[in-house]
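Lab meeting minutes (informal)
Scribe: AK
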Amino acid sequence: MINGFINLNKPSGISSNKALGILKHSLRELNISEKVGHMGTLDPLASGVLPVALGRATRLFNYSLDKIKVYEAEFIFGAISASLDTDTEVTYLPFSFPETELIREMLSKLTGEILQEPPQYSAKSVGGIRAYKIARSGETVSLNPKKVIIYEIKLLNVNRNENKISLEIKCGGGTYIRALGRDLAKFLNTSAVMCKLIRKQSGIFSLNDSLSLNDIEKFPDIILKNFIPIEKFVCEFQRLNISDLQKKCLLNGVKLKTDYNFNNFVSLFCEGELIGIGECDGNKFLKVKTWLI
């Protein structure tokens, strides 16, 4: 059984599920039939890093949510659309292009822990219905602001001829880049829509060592040559080696007493094999949160 990850470079113009379907076809050519799922959806407009998990690695989805992401985004000032990007009809409005130093000053207001209102066209659930489905019907939904972390925003380029700016954003999980453009434009007394988005990094997965769909379709074997084992994904967690007897206790639901509390999750190894992700409660008892065997 194959367990691990493929660092896929999703092209712009197709959905994440469509990209996953193309990848699955290549996997079938290699007689690989394990469960497959992508970790962190990219909208059709966006391109870049789309981590794909195979086999038991699909159990690690929740551990990817808070990973640091890096995006490069381009916005058009003086424009509005229902989706905050160019995937829906764009209307252009008269405006005065702000000074570069003022843009940089306003970017500093969007750095740190901020409250962000999700876009109307988002996958947020409202009464059991996705917000984007409600928005497509012409209705407006009320979405509560959520806390997100923006570690850094760099102004990469200012194109006054096309009313565009480019930003590099380093952020935590759950951040809507489209909404950052909207909020920046509000500070500058204008509006903005996103016209380009590239995810350059998602946790350990980088655009520099990603695989294109085109190469995967032409040379399916490239998947096996660039396959990423689960052990690399959990390397940032503290490693804890346990005995075979302790493993059997954990398998039977017995918690193990430890000498200290863990500040984070731990990767559990038994005789050199990764068996799961563990966590410790306030009384220093270890339990397995996710089994990987």
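Next up, CB showed the second protein from the same session:
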Amino acid sequence: MPIFLRNEYPQTLPTALLRKATQHLLKAEAPPRAEVSISFVDDLAIHEMNRDYRGYDKPTDVLSFAFQESIEGVPAPPLLPGMPIELGDVVISADTAVRQAEQHSFSLEQELALLAVHGVLHLLGYEDETLEGTHEMREKERHYLGFQYPLWTTES
């Protein structure tokens, strides 16, 4: 299951844990031949995307853009044998990831892995707009990351 990384951030980022956790998630929950693209950008770039695509005029930590979203009443395009299934793109603000890791005394590598797993879960249809959805996503994140994030509590 290919994971394509694209670094548009001006420094090299630690991605070994991100690759491991994302691969584990894709093997368990994605269709065979699924692939995902993860890009690292700065706050300015993600601010523009958040404003243009979601209507929020501020930076955020991660955005997900699913390619397989269904439109009611429109059949999904056929999948050709052997062709990859492009789940979509995950865009992570490395600036925000650095700040969040520092604020929570967490490694940047762990923060990037969390944001990637969170973004891929959205590509797979999970949501965190409801309390039930948030609980489900937190449990999935804990499972695929294999560590406890400092902000997760029994209430989150």
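CB comment: The domain at 3-68+83-145 is CATH 3.40.390.30 (Collagenase (Catalytic Domain)).
No objections, moving on.
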